[in-house]
Write a structure and sequence with these properties.
This protein has 17 helices and no strands. It has 443 residues and is an all-alpha fold. It has a single domain, classed as Amino acid/polyamine transporter I, CATH 1.20.1740.10. It is globular, with a radius of gyration of 21 Å. The mean pLDDT is 90. It binds phenylalanine.
Length: 443
Amino acid sequence: MGNSFSSKIGVLLAAAGSAVGLGSIWKFPYTVGENGGGAFIILYIVCSLIFGLPLVMNEFLIGKLSGKSAYGAYRTLSGTGRWQWLSWMNLLSVLAILSFYFVVTGWCFYYMAEAATNSFAGMDAKALEAHFTAFEGKALLMIVYAVIGIVLTASVLWFDVNKGIERLSKILMPLLFLILIFMAIHMIFLDGGTTGLKYLFEPDFSKITSKVILQAMGLSFFTLSVGVGALITYGGYMPQDQNVRGTSLQMIVLVLIVSLLAGMIVFPAVFAYGFSPQEGPELTFVTLPAVFQHMFAPTVTSTAFFALMCVAAITSTISMMEVMVAFFCEATAETKRPLNRHHSVIVVSLILILANILSVLSMTGHANWLSVMGMNLFDSANACVNNILMPIGALGAALFTGWFVPKTRYQGSRVASFIYLVILRWIVPIGIAIIFLDSLNII
Ligand code: PHE
């Protein structure tokens, strides 16, 4: 069969690959650290179970029942074009995410190459900070590395799903777990790592505000790849006998394990060597390389860590870029100039190269006119996706299934249970609406 997954484990690994990305390995640890440790983790888990699980199942189901990606799925299941705007929003969301995600993926590739060639040897935190700041100013270098990520992703999507995405996921996901386990074992032998674990897990409920709850929900959606049509697209390639509920649950558990492991790798090391945890990019690209210099086998350890980031990032970019590729194929199918998969991959790659060039230029200050709401493109895309596009994409998909899709289309599907419908009809929309309005200070 051409464009579908050929095995159930292939679907699970590809979906887990989409979910486990820079979100789990990079964003999760520092967001948890900043927002009350264990208390935030509890919030994150609650959001993932109450909102995340039904939404993941919902997207898989929309894809599986229609056999299409977002563009065709909303049309096929509703029988009208009125829900089409949701697929356009999905397209916009992945474009926005990929315009900064490939930039960071490029950083990971660059740092992996540097780590492997032992370039960090002898550098302390100050030197590494200067190194990172200098790197952040080099627009051309960053563009080159972002384009490497785009070309690698495109070369996987060039093949049909079972030969490209599925085959690669079956290699990369076990590799990701191997590296994680290697890093985790490494950290167990550190003296003084418990302070790091305390920082990560000790609950501080005083830090929980509505903004923090919104952040937990945003992080949960982002790490579960929900609300942008990626899981609809993978659902469209699922074998008919795949169990949607089981796959969704397994995927969420895998994401949780990886996110917690990532935190348990990062913080003990940071504290064991007397560093203080920093927020955002600095934690990964300055503090950690500095910490690794003090550890056993620094070259191997830092290369392994950045390889982990690269593997996690690429399996996620693959799923997001596939949303765009499938969109263009389906949207042009009935026009005079239908795009086949190869054409679509080329068009999407060119769009993404342009978007990433703009994003880098606005970040390095070479194009200050490219700012939105006082932020450069990189930051505004990030904020807009987390706070607006993903919640609305997820809300729209929930309302679509809960209220609109004729029930007959869901008959025979084991997930279409009463509880599931109640959650999609009421709990998810009300929850998202309250958190959303509250964060905008409207209520
Ligand atoms: N889940 C990915 C991560 O955590 C990002 C992603 C979002 C991937 C949406 C696909 C769709 O990094």
